[in-house]
Amino acid sequence: MSRHARWGLIFLLGACSDPITVEQVREPMDPLQVYYLYWEEMAGCTTIFGGSPAQVRWFVTDWFPGQAGVVGQWNERHEITLLREARFDKGVVTHEIVHELLQGDRDHSDPAWSACQEFGLMMGTGN
To answer: How far is CA 31 from CA 1, 14, 52, 57, 59, in A?
Structure first.
């Protein structure tokens, strides 16, 4: 086997083992108008004011690869990805908005999580 053939085989084997990420299976979306209302509600219960859904890059996906049961996800790049069928779900959307307002808190330890549940926020909906 030639040196080029070996490198090609190594490349192909490596490419096959790379896991698919949500970034590969999502598409951009504009925030729905109702997200602005949700933002204000979550700002009120977290007492973190300022910003808007327009400061976030929003995405929709049909699945979260390797993450069964996840319907929404926030990340430090100020991106929120929602399962397509959950983009109208107030509990899911507000959950991810609270992550943005808190700039993280993946452990859900901030008291804001409890304070915001009365406004429709759902726990256990995403990351």
So the answer is: 53, 37, 10, 8, 9
Determine the 3-state secondary structure of 61 from DSSP: strand
**Residue pointed to by tokens 């976030």:** 56
User: Cβ distance 34 to 53 under 8 Å?
Assistant: no
pLDDT at 3 over 80: no
Enter the tokens of residue 64.
């979260």
For residues 54-65, average pLDDT = 93
Asked whether the beta carbons of 59 and 84 are under 8 A apart, the reply is no
Cα separation, 88 vs 57, whole angstroms: 17
Q: Which residues are CB-neighbours of 77 under 8 A, at least 6 positions away? A: 57
Give the number of other CB atoms < 10 A from CB of residue 115. Answer: 16
- Under DSSP, the state recorded for 56 is S
pLDDT tens for each residue of 67-103: 889 999 999 999 999 999 999 999 999 999 999 999 9
Question: What is the structure's pLDDT at 40?
Answer: 95
